[in-house]
Every structure is written in structure tokens, then in C-alpha cells.
Write a structure and sequence with these properties.
The chain has 419 residues and is an alpha+beta fold. The chain is built from eleven helices and seven strands. The protein folds into three domains: 70 residues; 138 residues, no CATH class; 176 residues, Histidine kinase-like ATPase, C-terminal domain (Heat Shock Protein 90), CATH 3.30.565.10. It has a five-stranded mixed beta sheet. A hairpin with a 3-residue loop joins strand 6 and strand 7. Helix 9 runs antiparallel to helix 10. The longest helix is centred in the first third of the chain and has 61 residues. The protein is globular.
């Protein structure tokens, strides 16, 4: 214990001495400081990682105030970028390790349970076969063997599905992390090499790249957490009376920036200007955003996306139509299953974890609705959503007549982060 305390004290004294040396350039101190942050997190714990980052930023601010070998054009903006990098790196590593540790524990528990079930099933089947053969029931024994083979086949499919899931998740995490590291390396090169001129635009550009890829990871973690809550049956739905036409229309307006970047035309049409129904507004937004982001990802330039709302006495019907690459017929049901994708990991043209459509289907169904798909390769896809046309008796209708809120734009940035 005393040795551990002495190690920690020596570690922090070393950090302070590093930052007090006046002849080391501030950019080099920042880079070494980043290594100290990672070292303290993995050597000690999450709390020491945060403390180390705070100490480094404190001494960095002192060095800037005293003008000790400051080699940034705009030092305080550089300090802000450094603070964002330090703290978010710690948070991201801690969050991902925690999630995967929990998933690993669940997987190990499931493996042990499966082995126990397999052992018990084998014993029962062996006993059943023996008894039935002794009694002359050949056809029943043969049926038991077939059931055993079917069970083994299902277990193999489950193993393959889990392997594919971890491959997808690893790929999804590695891509944005590589981009974040590349952006940080560029900022580091600007800071170290005098032949590069540092200006605010370069720093802001790299911060935006980092932020966009942080949104990608945040979307992945949000989806994983939602799946966990659904499996644990702790996922909540908040039904209120909303004008669903306005909700869908505002979402279409908010994604226009991303469609313009790919030269895709979006059209919105409705048979009714106002339709008050009981629904969870946040869940509706996530469903529509997910389907629109899929349509954008799999549409070519100069394509189109058409969103139409209609209603019957019993249902509200929302159709999202695109002229993208389409989905082959045998995959129409499969794409709504968890961790399943229309293309495999090494041949698909767009990123994805195989969670989005499964999550969207669940969000539709917990509101009493349904989702269907019509698609043909090379022609496009039509996703049809049906929600019950009903009103919650207590409470009042929520009319969204104000401009799109900032929170909506944040949701769009997260959902469209890989476009």
C-alpha cells in the first residue's frame, strides 16, 4: 500500500516538474501530457486520469500566462482543444471498456448456461433414445435425433451471429477512432513543425472532424444501451398527444443539409395538415431519422427520397421511398433482425453495426405499430410505417409550431454522423 502511494506521489511530482521546465515547448508538453493521461488511466484508474488531465491543463494555462515557450498562434484556443481531447479520450475509453466488460460477462454467463443446457439435453436425449429403442419406438428416437441436430444447428447460427456482431462493432469503433487519432496527429504536427502556420480555421476544422466521429461512437453506444434496456424490459415509452404531421415534416426539414451534400432531393407530401395521435415524439424522431439516414447512405448522387403521410380511420401511414441500391427479396425479413445486414462486413459500401433497423422495428412495435419493406435490387426501397390512429384521453395535444429545436439538430448530427 505504501509502495503504491509512493508511486502515485512520484508520478505527480514528475508531472509538475515536466510542466515547470521553462525550456520545453508547450506543444511538446501537451503531447507528453497526453501520454501521462493515458498512463494514469490504465495504471491507476479513471479518477487519476481526470486528475492528471486537470493538472496538465492548469500548468498549461500558467505557462501560457507566463509565456513560457508558447508556440501556438492562438494558445487559449489550443488549450480548449487540448482539454476537449484529454477529457473525451478518457471518457470514451472508460465507456467502451465498461460496456465491453459487461457484454463479456453476459457472454461468459450465457456460454456456461448453454454448456449446462447442452449437457442436460444430451443426457435426456441419450436416455430417451435408449428407452425408445428398447420399447421399439424407432420413429420417435429418430425424431429426437432430428431435434438434437436442429438445436445444434441453431447454436452454431447463434455463435456465427455473435462473431459477426463483434466484428461489426470492432469495425464501427475502429473507423471513427482512427479518424480522431489522425485529426489529433495533424494538430500535433501543426504545433511541432514551424513550417506549418497555425490558424484558427485549421484547429476548428480538426475539432469538427473529431466531434463528428465522437457523434458516431455516441450513436453506437446509445443503440447498445437501448438494446440492453429493451432486453431488461426497462425501456420506457411516453405517450402524449402530438401532431404527427408536424413532427415528420420538421425532421425532413432538419436533414436537408445532409441531402444537399449528396445532391439528393427530398420531397414531403401529406393528405392532411394536422393529425393528433398518441405517440412518443422522441421515439418517432429516432425511427424516421434512422430510415432517412439509411435511405441517404444507400442512394447515389442526384437520387430522391419521398416521404408521404396518409391516414385511415384506424391507422396513420408513413411511407419513406428512395431510388437507392435496393435490398434483395430474401433479405426483406432478415434486415429487421438484430445485428443482421444486407451486405457482409467486407463488401458493403456503407458503415453500420446491424442495429439500426432492428431498433427502429422495436420502437415502432412498442407503440402498437408495424413496419414493412418493399424493395428490389437496383430500383429502390419503400419502408411503410403504420401507427394506431388514436388519442390519449387525459392530457392535451402538443402543437409544434416553433422552428426546429437545437436538440433536434443534435439528434440529426448523431444519426447522420457517418454520412
Amino acid at each position: 500500500m505504501e509502495k503504491s502511494k509512493g508511486h502515485i506521489i512520484t508520478y505527480y511530482i514528475l508531472i509538475i516538474l515536466l510542466n515547470c521546465l521553462p525550456f520545453i515547448q508547450l506543444s511538446l508538453k501537451s503531447i507528453i501530457g497526453g501520454l501521462f493521461v493515458l498512463y494514469s488511466y490504465f495504471k491507476f484508474n479513471y479518477r487519476h486520469g481526470l486528475i492528471t488531465a486537470t493538472v496538465l491543463l492548469f500548468f498549461g494555462a500558467i505557462n501560457i500566462i507566463l509565456d513560457n515557450n508558447v508556440d501556438y498562434k492562438n494558445p487559449f484556443l489550443g488549450l480548449i482543444a487540448l482539454a476537449f481531447t484529454y477529457y473525451f479520450t478518457i471518457y470514451l475509453i472508460h465507456r467502451s471498456i465498461k460496456i465491453f466488460r459487461h457484454k463479456n460477462d453476459d457472454l461468459m454467463l450465457e456460454i456456461r448456461l448453454r454448456k449446462s443446457i447442452e449437457k442436460e439435453l444430451k443426457e435426456k436425449l441419450d436416455k430417451m433414445q435408449k428407452d425408445r429403442f428398447l420399447e421399439g419406438e424407432w420413429h420417435q428416437a429418430e425424431e429426437a435425433i432430428k431435434k438434437k441436430e436442429h438445436l445444434e444447428s441453431e447454436l452454431l447460427k447463434l455463435d456465427k451471429l455473435k462473431a459477426q456482431f463483434f466484428a461489426n462493432i470492432s469495425h464501427e469503433m475502429r473507423t471513427p477512432l482512427n479518424v480522431i487519432l489522425s485529426a489529433n496527429q495533424i494538430m500535433e504536427k501543426y504545433a511541432k513543425d514551424k513550417k506549418y502556420s497555425i490558424d484558427d480555421e485549421k484547429i476548428i476544422k480538426n475539432i469538427n472532424i473529431t466531434r463528428k466521429n465522437c457523434y458516431r461512437l455516441l450513436r453506437l453506444f446509445n443503440n447498445l444501451m437501448d438494446i440492453g434496456e429493451m432486453d431488461a424490459m426497462t425501456f420506457e415509452v411516453n405517450f402524449r398527444n402530438h401532431n404527427i404531421v408536424t413532427i415528420v415534416k420538421d425532421i425532413c426539414l432538419s436533414v436537408s443539409e445532409y441531402l444537399e451534400n449528396k445532391d439528393i432531393k427530398l420531397s414531403f407530401d401529406t393528405d392532411i395538415e394536422e393529425l393528433i395521435v398518441a405517440c412518443d415524439e422522441e421515439k418517432i424522431e429516432r425511427i424516421i431519422l434512422n430510415l432517412l439516414s439509411n435511405a441517404v447512405k444507400f442512394s447515389s448522387e442526384k437520387g430522391y427520397i419521398f416521404v408521404k403521410i396518409s391516414a385511415t380511420e384506424d391507422f396513420v401511414i408513413i411511407k419513406i421511398i428512395d431510388n437507392g441500391v435496393g435490398i434483395k427479396k430474401e433479405m426483406h425479413e432478415e434486415v429487421f433482425k438484430r445485428f443482421i445486414q444486407a451486405d457482409d462486413l467486407f463488401s458493403r459500401s456503407s458503415e453500420g453495426s446491424g442495429i439500426g433497423l432492428s431498433l427502429a422495428k422495436t420502437l415502432v412495435e412498442i407503440q402498437g405499430g408495424s413496419i414493412g419493406l418493399e424493395s428490389e435490387l437496383g430500383v429502390g426501397s419503400i419502408f411503410t410505417l403504420k401507427f394506431p390512429n388514436r388519442i390519449k384521453k387525459e392530457g392535451r395535444a402538443i402543437y409544434k409550431e416553433m422552428p426546429v429545436e437545437k436538440s433536434m439538430m443534435e439528434k440529426v448530427r448523431i444519426e447522420f454522423s457517418d454520412i
